[in-house]
Amino acid sequence: MMAQIQQKDKVNLGAKKFSMWIFIFTSFMLFAALSSGFIVYSGGRGHGLDVILPQAFMYSTAVILLSSITLFFASKAARQLQFAKQRLYLWLTFFLGIAFFAIQIYAWYVLAIKMGIYFINPNASRSFIYVFSGLHLVHVLAGLAVMLNVIIASYRNTPQVKNLFKMEMASIFWHFLDIIWIYLYVFLLLNQS
Amino acid sequence: MSTLAVHDHGLVHHEEGHEHHHKATFLNTYVFSQDHKMIAKQFLITGITMAFIGMLLSLLFRIQLAYPDKSFPLLETLLGRFAPGGRLSPDFYMSLVTIHGTIMVFFVLTAGLSGTFANLLIPLQIGARDMASPFVNMLSYWFFLIASIIMVSAFFVEKGPASGGWTIYPPLSALPTAMPGSAEGMTLWLISMVCFIASSLMGGINYVSTVLNMRTKGMDLWKMPLTVWALFLTAVLGVLAFPVLVAGVVLLIFDRSFGTSFYLSDIVLNGKVMPFEGGSPILFQHLFWFLGHPEVYIIIMPAMGISSEVMSVNSRKPIFGYHAMVYSLIGITVLSFIVWGHHMFVTGMNPFLGGVFMITTLIIAVPSAVKTFNWLATLWRGNIRFTPAMLFAIGMVSFFISGGLTGIFLGNAALDINLHDTYFVVAHFHLVMGSAAIFGMLAGVYHWFPKMFRRMMDDRLGYLHVWVTFVGAYLVFFPMHFMGLEGVPRRYYAITEFHQWDHWLNVNTFITWAAIMSGFAQVAFIINFVYSIFWGKKTVQNPWNANTLEWTAPIEHIHGNWIGELPTVYRWPYDYSKPGHEEDFIPQNVPFSQTMSSNMPHDFEDNPEGLEEFNKWTSTQKANEEVK
Q1: Which residues on B lie below 8 Å from A22 (Cβ)?
Q2: What are the structural domains of chain A?
Q3: pLDDT band at B307 (very low <50, low <70, confident <90, very high)
Q4: Which of B10, B114, B242, B422 makes a 20 to 30 Å CA pair with B459?
Q5: Any chain A CB within 8 A of the CB of B284?
């Protein structure tokens, strides 16, 4: 009987996956609030962005897109029980994530040092660039932690159910990070002038 | 089932397997418990503690309002530098108001109310073993406790706690040197709220996920008790609204600590021109109230759900208009996101926009009225049992009506210009969400106390508590309407500084004494509560003869809630006094085949086989009648 209860508790994977979706919704609300804040601010105070965004953002977008693709292949390999391949693609995704992180920081460097557009700015529309990308980077850090968790699990003798579940959770989160960055980037591009 | 368990066990063995194989120790039973029933009790006791702190703060500032020019040497003894010469300092008065608001809104009526009853009732009433993620549930409580401790600890920093009002509008909150409370106190407030939001989100995600994924067999959405509906929709609101507050607070922290200008512009502080430029303080108000308005529904909806359930049980009648109750909750949930502007009518908002917010605000009166009328219709000709819980639930309806009516005045943009930031507003929200929500919470405490602590609370102390609190709350808040109509502003340290309001001083004195009386009534509650936990009368399994699933679970708390299989649900939760049944209640897990004499054709709406059986049974009954 007790075993049955425990079994029920543990096979709540569906509910946990659902929780992940709700969590994604909360982060989405965070970024939606920030972008509405941007609209209210720039509309109300007449301060446009008026910045040509650094090229680096374009590269970082390409990198995070690529990382989504490698993660997709990792999931596919996991489903086909090709664990070596899964590990390889997971590592690739992880390093692409780190590359994304680095390029974002580089973009800040270009913004601040080369273009003179600082975070502390009388035109808060420009501060918003840092807030958007910064809060996104905080999420990316969390995403990298999740990724590392899957990678570690893939080296241990994790049961396949568990392995697939972890892959799926990581995929939901990482693809979301990808999509939300594209949303933020397009949003900034549209408000560039 | 058991074969499946054995079969799967190997596969899932490692996942969190460690926590189930521990022996029950003091630490993992009472402290770091992952059992939803224990977490509910932790939330409740922390919430009650915070409520008493919040109440004491309000009594302190009430003394100042009643006797603005008198000095009480005792206050200096107790509060030291916060009450020099036995009078509260103006800064400390502002801190008291701010922290009273924050504690009551967030710590008592959000976490204390939702946290307690969502944790206790969601798994028990939908027939689940526990929450979707018990571990995250435990984290939710611990973040809440840390947030509470940090919030209260602000009283021990030199310059005192935050004092810009619970809405922490910039620029006051964004400039650490603006006033004493904006210094470390404000920092602590922000840290505490960050922990609180984390706690709320973890809790909310869990509640939503549990309700949608873990209902027992037969428990479809339209068989859920209204408590579960209300707590579910509350969690949805929290999940959607709190991230927006995070956005607002993050920008505020950047303004405070990094020197950005999201909210700040053209500031001259102590004769010095500050470098901030171009910010918009109104932006903060938009972000804050986009959370803030749903927040008041986060507070009241659990109270609504609890009252619905308690009133149906104790009227021995089905809730009137179950579907209408659910749809009005959904209506309130949706509408609550498009009314935030009514807090900002006087910010220089475009009058057209004000009109839009006014209309959406007034539309909320419709679902609210639906609920009110349904409660009254539930009572109508019921076989009412006036338990303390029932009286609290009826009190909740009373406060919701009298406080809600003034909301119609305040929702009008034109009238609000006059009434904004006066005692009229204070009276309005203290009745409609303060008193109403706390009455809903107390109704829940009295009603589910046997489920939580396996003992009954004392009825006589309960009646004392409910009546003194009920009368006291009206005596406190009703006169405030009239003060507000004459323009007495809220948050003022001493209205006697303005002689046109001198004649309100004796009203203030009266209110203070009424508040002290209500405070004493809470002592009766806490004595009753603590005494009953240890020495109360032992309860039976279903003390109120209620239908919902929590009363089918054993009295002894076990991890997993039910021994053996989970109960199956066959009917809605409100089959009270059903004609043809010998008892006046039929629990949800009783199949229709056991209640042939009381079945109705509409019980088989989407069950053709059942209907056929039912028709067969009625025709044989008729045939038998004719034979006789």
Answers
A1: 204-205, 208-209, 239
A2: 55-190 (1.20.120.80)
A3: very high
A4: B114
A5: no
Token pair 């512009």 is found at B265
Encoding tokens for residue B286?
């938009």
Q: Which of A8, A20, A26 to mutate to test the interface with B (most CBs of B within 10 A)?
A: A26
Residue B562 has pLDDT above 50, yes or no: yes
B280 touching chain A per CB within 8 A = yes
Question: In whole angstroms, what is the distance from residue A41 CA to residue A35 CA?
Answer: 10
Q: What is the pLDDT of residues B151-190, one digit of tens each?
A: 999 999 999 999 999 999 999 999 998 899 999 999 999 9
- Which residues from chain B sit within 8 angstroms of residue A23, using beta carbons? 201, 205
CB-based contact B371:B333 (threshold 8 Å): no
Q: What is the DSSP letter of B604?
A: G
Cβ pair A30, B244 in contact under 8 A: yes
What amino acid is encoded at B528 in this protein? N
pLDDT of amino acid B13: 39
pLDDT at B16 > cutoff 60:
no
Q: How far apart are the first and last CA of chain A?
A: 66
Average pLDDT, chain A: 90
Q: What is the C-alpha to C-alpha distance for residues B547 and B507, in angstroms, rounded to an integer?
A: 47
Closest residue by Cα to residue B67 from B91, B83, B50: B83
A83 and chain B: CB distance < 8 Å anywhere?
no
DSSP single-letter state for residue A51: -
Q: Is the pLDDT of residue B8 over 70?
A: no
Over the stretch B411-452, which tens digit does the pLDDT of each residue have?
A: 999 999 999 999 999 999 999 999 999 999 999 999 999 999
Which residues lie below 8 Å from residue B269, measured CB to CB, with a gap of 6+?
A: B175, B177, B178
Residues forming beta bridges with residue B484, ordered by sequence position:
none
The CATH code that applies to domain B39-535 is: 1.20.210.10
Q: In this complex, is the C-beta atom of B250 within 8 Å of any C-beta atom belonging to chain A?
A: yes
Element (H, E) at B151: helix B134-153
Q: How many Å is the maximal CA-CA distance in chain B?
A: 102
* Beta-carbon separation of A30 and B246 below 8 A: yes
Q: Decide if A46 touches B, using CB distance below 8 A.
A: no
Q: Rounded to 10 degrees, what is the CA torsion of B531, B533, B535, B539?
A: 130
Q: How many CB atoms lie within 10 A of CB B399?
A: 26
> Which H or E element spans position B535?
helix B505-535
Integer Cα distance of B455 and B485 in angstroms: 47
Cα B530 to Cα A5, B17, B207, B438, B449: the distances in Å are: 33, 36, 28, 19, 11
Backbone angles phi, psi at B272, to 5 degrees: -110, 130
Pick B243's closest partner by Cβ from A6, A30, A44: A30
B201, B205, B558: best mutation site toward chain A, by most A Cβ within 10 Å? B205
Q: What is the rounded CA–CA span in Å between residue B218 and residue B239? A: 27
Q: Does the bond joining B171 to the residue before it have cis omega, within 30 degrees of 0? A: yes
B259 Cβ under 8 Å from any chain A Cβ: yes
State whether A162 and B14 contact (CB < 8 Å). Answer: yes
Closest-CA residue of A relative to B21 is A6
C-alpha span between A3 and B432 (Å, rounded): 48
